[in-house]
Amino acid sequence: MQKAFQIQVFGKVQGVYYRQSTRDKALELGLKGTVQNLTDGSVIIHAEGNEEKLNELISWCYKGPIKAKVNEVKVTEAEIKNFSSFEIIR
Protein backbone atom coordinates (compact mmCIF):
# COMPACT_ATOMS: atom_id res chain seq x y z
CA MET A 1 0.00 0.00 0.00
CA GLN A 2 1.30 3.43 -0.96
CA LYS A 3 1.65 6.02 1.78
CA ALA A 4 3.28 9.40 2.24
CA PHE A 5 5.02 10.94 5.23
CA GLN A 6 6.47 14.32 6.06
CA ILE A 7 9.61 13.83 8.12
CA GLN A 8 11.27 16.79 9.83
CA VAL A 9 14.75 16.19 11.24
CA PHE A 10 16.30 18.46 13.88
CA GLY A 11 19.88 18.71 15.13
CA LYS A 12 23.16 19.13 13.28
CA VAL A 13 21.64 18.15 9.93
CA GLN A 14 22.75 20.94 7.58
CA GLY A 15 26.23 21.04 6.08
CA VAL A 16 26.74 17.32 6.76
CA TYR A 17 25.42 15.88 3.44
CA TYR A 18 22.07 15.04 5.05
CA ARG A 19 20.04 15.92 1.93
CA GLN A 20 22.30 14.00 -0.46
CA SER A 21 22.42 11.00 1.87
CA THR A 22 18.63 11.06 2.27
CA ARG A 23 18.18 11.11 -1.51
CA ASP A 24 20.61 8.18 -1.91
CA LYS A 25 18.79 6.18 0.79
CA ALA A 26 15.34 6.99 -0.66
CA LEU A 27 16.43 5.91 -4.16
CA GLU A 28 17.93 2.71 -2.73
CA LEU A 29 14.54 2.00 -1.10
CA GLY A 30 12.56 2.89 -4.25
CA LEU A 31 10.86 5.92 -2.68
CA LYS A 32 9.80 9.19 -4.33
CA GLY A 33 9.63 12.70 -2.93
CA THR A 34 11.77 15.66 -1.91
CA VAL A 35 14.27 16.77 0.73
CA GLN A 36 15.23 20.34 1.59
CA ASN A 37 16.88 22.48 4.26
CA LEU A 38 14.67 24.84 6.24
CA THR A 39 15.74 28.24 7.57
CA ASP A 40 15.41 27.00 11.19
CA GLY A 41 18.31 24.59 10.61
CA SER A 42 16.17 21.48 10.21
CA VAL A 43 15.68 19.26 7.16
CA ILE A 44 12.23 18.46 5.79
CA ILE A 45 11.52 15.32 3.78
CA HIS A 46 8.38 14.37 1.85
CA ALA A 47 8.57 10.67 1.06
CA GLU A 48 6.10 8.43 -0.75
CA GLY A 49 6.00 4.73 -1.45
CA ASN A 50 5.67 1.34 0.16
CA GLU A 51 4.94 1.65 3.89
CA GLU A 52 7.64 -0.85 4.89
CA LYS A 53 10.28 1.05 2.87
CA LEU A 54 9.05 4.36 4.32
CA ASN A 55 9.53 2.96 7.82
CA GLU A 56 13.10 1.96 6.85
CA LEU A 57 13.77 5.55 5.72
CA ILE A 58 12.28 6.95 8.95
CA SER A 59 14.53 4.64 11.02
CA TRP A 60 17.54 5.78 8.96
CA CYS A 61 16.63 9.45 9.60
CA TYR A 62 17.33 9.03 13.32
CA LYS A 63 21.01 8.44 12.41
CA GLY A 64 21.52 10.05 9.03
CA PRO A 65 24.98 10.42 7.50
CA ILE A 66 28.10 9.97 9.61
CA LYS A 67 28.65 13.69 10.46
CA ALA A 68 25.02 14.36 11.39
CA LYS A 69 23.84 14.64 14.99
CA VAL A 70 20.09 14.08 15.06
CA ASN A 71 18.23 15.40 18.13
CA GLU A 72 14.63 14.86 17.05
CA VAL A 73 12.57 13.41 14.20
CA LYS A 74 8.92 14.42 13.71
CA VAL A 75 6.83 12.24 11.40
CA THR A 76 3.35 13.07 10.15
CA GLU A 77 1.23 11.40 7.52
CA ALA A 78 1.04 13.44 4.33
CA GLU A 79 -0.95 13.65 1.14
CA ILE A 80 0.38 11.53 -1.75
CA LYS A 81 1.59 13.90 -4.48
CA ASN A 82 2.75 11.22 -6.96
CA PHE A 83 6.31 12.44 -7.42
CA SER A 84 8.17 10.79 -10.32
CA SER A 85 11.58 10.76 -8.59
CA PHE A 86 13.33 11.82 -5.38
CA GLU A 87 14.83 15.31 -5.61
CA ILE A 88 16.87 17.67 -3.49
CA ILE A 89 15.25 21.11 -3.30
CA ARG A 90 17.96 23.77 -2.98
Q: What is the first-to-last residue Cα distance?
A: 30 Å
DSSP summary, beta strand count: 5
How confident overall, as mean pLDDT? 98
Secondary structure class reads alpha+beta
Beta content comes to 35-45%
Can you tell me the residue ranges where pLDDT is under 50 for at least 5 consecutive residues?
none
- Biggest beta-sheet profile: 5 strands, mixed
| Sheet with most strands: strand arrangement | 4-1-3-2-5
Question: What is the string of helix and strand elements?
Answer: EHEEHEE
Helical amount? 25-40%
What is the overall number of helices?
2
User: Which word captures the global form?
Assistant: globular
Backbone CA Rg: 12 Å
Give the arrangement of secondary structure elements.
Elements: E1 2-12, H1 18-29, E2 32-37, E3 43-50, H2 51-61, E4 69-77, E5 86-89
Parallel strand pairs: 2-5
Antiparallel strand pairs: 1-3, 1-4, 2-3
Helix pairs in contact: 1-2
Word description of this protein:
- The protein is α+β, with helices and mostly antiparallel strands and 90 residues long.
- The protein has a domain at 33-90.
- Helices cover 26% and strands 42% of the residues.
- It has two helices and five strands.
- The protein has helices spanning 18-29, 51-61, and strands spanning 2-12, 32-37, 43-50, 69-77, 86-89.
- It has a five-stranded mixed sheet with strand order 4-1-3-2-5.
- Helix 1 runs antiparallel to helix 2 (51-61).
- The radius of gyration is 12 Å and the shape is globular.
